[in-house]
Design goal:
transmembrane helix, single chain, Nucleotide-diphossugar_trans, 0% strand, little secondary structure, 12% helix, Xyl/GlcA_transferase
Length: 57
């Protein structure tokens, strides 16, 4: 595995490190991705994140 060399004692094992190799899995023409942990909950529409991120330069 691409991340097996990374010391990791987290309960999720190597699966918690998968975001490090996510770019190799997604289409190369994809321009934007929001990666979230599975324990995140939203009190509002998640689409509002895109509005905030569009303000970044």
């Amino acid at each position: 595995s691409e991340v097996s060399w990374i010391p990791n004692k987290h309960y999720s094992g190597i699966y918690g490190l998968m975001k490090l190799v996510l770019t190799k899995t997604l289409p190369s023409d994809l321009q934007k991705v929001i990666v979230l942990d599975t324990d995140i909950t939203f009190a509002t529409d998640i689409a509002e994140l895109w509005v905030v991120f569009h303000k970044f330069k």
